[in-house]
From TrEMBL:
Residues 42-88 form the RING-type domain. This is Cellulose synthase. The lineage of its organism: Eukaryota, Viridiplantae, Streptophyta, Embryophyta, Tracheophyta. UDP-alpha-D-glucose binds at S301, K307, E308, D337, K478. Its EC number is 2.4.1.12. Keywords: Cell membrane, Cell wall biogenesis/degradation, Cellulose biosynthesis, Glycosyltransferase, Manganese, Membrane, Metal-binding, Transferase, Transmembrane, Transmembrane helix, Zinc, Zinc-finger. It comes from Olea europaea subsp. europaea. The chain crosses the membrane at residues 216-236, 243-262, 818-839, 851-869, 889-909, 930-951, 971-989, 1001-1021. GO terms for molecular function: cellulose synthase (UDP-forming) activity; zinc ion binding. Mn(2+) binds at K479, D503. It is found in: Cell membrane. Pathway: Glycan metabolism; plant cellulose biosynthesis. GO terms for biological process: cell wall organization; cellulose biosynthetic process. One of its GO terms (cellular component) is plasma membrane. The active site is at D337, D741.
Length: 1040
């Protein structure tokens, strides 16, 4: 990777109009070099496998041939599970390797010779005598478990035996297997320990203790059985006096039961994972050697800096530039989808401030490396800081940050009013993005160019501003389109094999976040099969009680850990490190299969007639590829009904040269390779970008011209580049929903990729979340709308991808993510039933007998026990769990319901409706936004439900008082039902009242109006008068 591959000034251009302008700065760059190796490497430690004494390649497992070096093989036999990682066959002892428990007793004399490195001069087949230094040793019998061998002790005296052991140690020292016990022995022992430690796994799976998970699974099965008996009772015991209410309640309960199954069973195999960053450093960051950690491109997306404060985006960028990772391997790309000069100038100020902030972070190892949150932390910042200059430097840095904030706020104030002639840059050039809907593509490199060093003269990570081209009449696909543009421009300019995706308000809270991800992505066993590493989302600025479940603790600490035990967590839109090859739509690499067992019981002619033709055809193809030098470049892959290619990490070839090399061969052989036209149809008309896709380990080809890279980068972010390609369909972020994250992760898992959930003790990323009621509901509305769009699309998990490699429980989880908004219909009906029952005097359940009461009690107990056991193994607090249950009802009867109807109108009728949110000022300083009220139509349904149930409770109690003692028994079930609704909606009611218990008049009027109309429709009698039972009396007309 080069420190400079791009132009130093803002480059704006349009490929369709053949325009390319450098508005300021000059072009300068140097191409990177890329080294490749052809030696076979160990899949455990990454080192070369090496050869045996006879010159043959060392093979640890004779069953499957899984590549493992001798050091890892010996460690696995002595300290590990003594079996092959791939086929799980027990390792057999190789000649010259120490014995372990369980080794076979065969050829023991050969083993003894190899263990002590003795030269055999003569061997008698009967006596098995070994002659060494003129002395004969009879055959030896030994104890394998104790590793102590017994022979005829009178053969050697003590001095002779010590001399023999010393000679053996000398030979072992020459081979590097043991260390000398001299003065430098301790240092050598430490080095050997570090080398052995580096060969250890980079992570481990921490299963949930069986004492916690087994009772949880047992209760789930019991609850499922109870649920079946409960439905059996409910269906076969109708309430004839309230038949419509009974039908509605049964349908709702069945839907709730199915929703519970979809949510519960993907949590059957929860796991935790633990990483070892010290081992990662020992393996890839050895002193005196080049750093072997792979590069990472970081994507930050933003749209409108007036709605997304520039100071927040600047803090996110600063945390990326100060990350604990090799600076030459980090590049930060900021996508400005609003073509705002405010963000452009903000990044310029941020780049200048980073020259002082980054060395300060590295010198004193501070956390977090976001100045806004670091300086606002109420902790002892002198803890663990022993440098005498720290206090002085911290004060100076804080003063500089305050000045930096003043400059950013001045830019924001200036941007509030746009000049009539448009914005003008500092050099007098008109800003290319004055028309946000019609402007060319723009690229600006702030850091990473020549001379862009910090105040200590050290290199800084690259910072690149990107604004894709926009023209009227083109579909730009919002955030998903912007992310795909970043994928292409980063592939052209830096082409790191991994990409970190962050929202502009999510900063890096743990400077070792990238290394945490590398523990999985650079793992020799599973790294190539991972599409992404997902981190949990944590948030700042949320009130202590988390009234509206903004933290989503239940989802991130329970559901995601459950999915991690199946095929991996879903992609949640931010805090995710991607494997670039997975985003290109390729299948994961196929594991090396064990060779089939063969026997000599069948005649040779049988084998020839069965498999000779296939072998010949394979040999012919291999020979053809070898002639072209493309043996490792292409391998045919079948994926989702189409044939795509998988490229190797060796060399990138010019596509035209490949086409020319095919001349002279028949059509059948040509069809085995993907032609240039198919490449362009898939990836677009960019040879540079297509070449980058052939480089699995990233990097740029040798001899790259920086000027041509800039021109090509402008080309790949042009608005018409994706036309007639598979971008957004099979490649990159998938289009078709406002929640593009769910679709993108779902497509990867369908191809067979795995994902990993990484949740370190110190959160790697933190962000901001809307904490007031209206904004929270609006956020949930957007998520639910995206799920409805996926449900109504061809990518619905109910029917998509059954020919792929998606696991069943993983599919259930994806089905749950797209059907949960439809639960709102059943939920709002079920929350209305208590009020109806109280107002009409009827109930959805007939008189209960003893058996029915048992099933009801068993169901409630199983629900409670399931929740308690779930909290035990997950560590989630009961308050977080209860807040999640409450907001499930609040969001279900408001945002989810609106999302269902809005999604149906948008997909089926083409009507795109938006729910506007208008703000009202807040009163409080701390958590003032919590009490900020914003009127929205989402508030009407839950308010109406609260009023209805309160009216129903008053009416039911009054009716029981008038009718006497006998009517209190049936009333308790109805009251419990109504209070269940009111308790779940209590946080909504509290948020509705605000800080000063003031509720907007319009909400009260609408809710009372709807509640009154509903009550008048259902109430046919006066509930405040006693009911008359008996004959109907009429006036007879006779005056008595």
């Amino acid at each position: 990777m080069a420190s400079n591959t791009m132009a130093g000034g803002l480059v704006a251009g349009s490929y369709a109009r053949n325009q390319l302008h450098v508005l300021h700065g000059d072009e300068d760059g140097r191409p990177p070099t890329r080294e490749s190796t052809t030696n076979k490497i160990c899949r455990i430690c990454g080192d070369e496998i090496g050869f045996k004494d006879n010159g043959l390649l060392f093979v640890a497992c004779y069953e499957c041939g899984y590549p493992v070096c001798k050091a890892c093989y010996e460690y696995e036999r002595s300290e590990g599970n003594q079996s092959c990682p791939q086929c799980h066959t027990r390792y057999k002892r190789h000649k010259g390797c120490p014995r372990v428990v369980g080794d076979e007793e065969d050829n023991f004399d050969d083993d003894f010779e190899d263990e002590f490195q003795l030269k055999t001069e003569q061997r008698d087949c009967n006596q098995h005598q070994i002659h060494t230094n003129g002395a004969a040793i009879p055959s030896v019998a030994g104890s394998v478990e104790g590793k102590d061998f017994e022979g005829e002790k009178e053969t050697y005296n003590n001095e002779e035996w010590k001399e023999r052991v010393e000679k053996w140690k000398t030979r072992q020292e020459k081979r590097g297997l043991v260390t000398k016990a001299d003065d430098g022995g301790n240092d050598q022992d430490d080095d050997d320990y570090l080398i052995a430690e580096a060969r250890q796994p980079l992570w481990r799976k921490v299963p949930i203790p069986s004492s916690l998970i087994n009772p949880y699974r047992i209760v789930i099965v019991i609850r499922l059985i109870i649920l079946c008996f409960f439905f059996h009772f409910r269906i076969l015991t109708p309430a004839y006096d309230a038949y419509p209410l009974w039908i509605i309640s049964v349908i709702c309960e069945i839907w709730f039961g199915l929703s519970w199954i979809l949510d519960q069973f993907p949590k059957w195999f929860p796991i935790n994972r633990e990483t070892y960053l010290d081992r990662l450093s020992l393996r890839f960051e050895r002193e005196g050697e080049p750093n072997r950690l792979l590069p990472v491109d970081v994507f930050v997306s933003t749209v409108d800096p007036l709605k997304e404060p520039p100071i927040i985006t600047a803090n996110t960028v600063l945390s990326i530039l100060a990350v604990d990772y090799p600076v030459e391997k980090v590049t930060c790309y900021v996508s400005d989808d609003g073509a705002s000069m405010l963000l452009f100038d903000t990044l310029a100020e941020t780049a200048e401030f980073a020259r002082r902030w980054v060395p300060f972070c590295h010198t004193y190892s501070i956390e977090p490396r976001t100045p806004e949150f670091y300086f606002s932390e109420k902790i002892d910042y002198l803890k663990d800081k022993v440098q005498p200059t720290f206090v002085k430097d911290r004060r100076a840095m804080k003063r500089e940050y305050e000045e930096f904030k003043v400059r950013i706020n001045a830019l924001v104030a200036k941007a509030q009013k746009k000049p009539e002639e448009g914005w003008v840059m500092q050099d007098g050039t008109p800003w290319p993005g004055n028309n946000t809907r019609d402007h060319p593509g723009m690229i600006q490199v702030y850091l990473g160019s020549e001379g862009a060093l910090d105040v200590e003269g050290k290199e800084l990570p690259r910072l690149v501003y990107v604004s894709r081209e926009k023209r009227p009449g083109y579909q730009h696909h919002k955030k998903a389109g912007a992310m795909n543009a970043l994928v292409r421009v980063s592939a052209v300019l830096t082409n790191a094999p991994f990409m970190l995706n962050l929202d502009c308000d999510h900063y890096i809270n743990n400077s070792k976040a990238m290394k945490e991800a590398m523990c999985f992505l650079m793992d020799p066993q599973i790294g190539k099969k991972l599409c992404y590493v997902q981190f949990p989302q944590r948030f700042d600025g949320i009130d202590r009680h988390d009234r509206y479940a903004n933290r989503n603790v239940v989802f991130f600490d329970i559901n995601m850990k459950g999915l991690d035990g199946i095929q991996g967590p879903v992609y949640v839109g931010t805090g995710c490190v991607f494997n670039r090859q997975a985003l290109y739509g390729y299948d994961p690499p196929v594991s090396e299969k064990r060779p089939k067992m063969t026997c000599d019981c069948w005649p040779k002619w049988c084998c020839c007639c069965c498999g000779s033709s296939r072998k010949k055809s394979k040999a012919k193809k291999k020979g053809f590829k070898a002639m072209l030098g493309l043996g490792g470049l292409y391998s045919k892959k079948k994926m989702m009904g189409k044939h795509y290619t998988r490229r190797s990490s060796e060399t990138a070839f010019d596509l035209e040269e490949i086409e020319e090399g095919l001349e002279g061969y028949d059509e059948l052989e040509k069809s085995s390779l993907m032609s240039q036209k198919n490449f362009e149809k898939r990836f677009g008309m960019s040879p540079v970008f297509i070449t980058s896709t052939l480089m699995e380990d990233g990097g740029l080809p040798e001899g790259t011209n920086p000027g041509s890279l800039i021109k090509e980068a402008i080309h790949v972010i042009s608005c018409g580049y994706e036309e007639k390609t598979e971008w957004g369909k099979e490649i990159g972020w998938i289009y078709g929903s406002v929640t593009e994250d769910i679709l993108t992760g779902f497509k990867m898992h369908c191809r067979g990729w795995r994902s990993v959930y990484c949740s370190p003790k110190r959160p790697c990323f933190k962000g901001s979340a809307p904490i007031n009621l209206s904004d929270r509901l609006h956020q949930v509305l957007r998520w639910a709308l995206g799920s409805v769009e996926i449900f109504l699309s061809r990518h619905c998990p109910l029917w998509y991808g059954y020919g792929g490699k998606l696991k069943l429980l993983e599919r259930l989880a994806y089905i749950n993510t797209i059907v949960y908004p439809f639960t709102s219909i059943a939920l709002i009906a079920y929350c209305t039933l208590p009020a109806v029952c109280l107002l009409t005097g009827k109930f959805i359940v007939p008189t209960l007998n003893n058996l029915a009461s048992i099933w009801f009690m068993a169901l409630f107990l199983s629900i409670i026990v399931t929740g308690v056991l779930e909290l035990r193994w997950s560590g989630v607090s009961i308050e977080d769990w209860w807040r999640n249950e409450q907001f499930w009802v609040i969001g279900g009867v408001s945002a989810h319901l609106f999302a269902v109807f809005q999604g149906l109108l948008k997909v089926l009728a083409g009507v795109d409706t938006n729910f506007t949110v208008t703000a009202k000022a807040a009163d409080d300083a701390e958590f003032g936004e919590l009490y900020l009220f914003k009127w929205t139509t989402l508030l009407i349904p839950p308010t109406t439900l609260i009023i209805l149930n309160m009216v129903g409770v008053v009416a039911g109690v009054s009716d029981a008082i008038n009718n006497g003692y006998g009517s209190w028994g049936p009333l308790f079930g109805k009251l419990f039902f109504a209070f269940w609704v009111i308790v779940h909606l209590y946080p909504f009611l509290k948020g509705l009242m605000g800080r000063q218990n003031r509720t907007p008049t319009i909400v009260v009027l609408w809710s009372i109006l709807l509640a009154s109309i509903f009550s008048l429709v259902w109430v046919r009698i006066d509930p405040f008068l006693p009911k008359q039972t008996g004959p109907i009396l009429k006036q007879c007309g006779v005056e008595c």
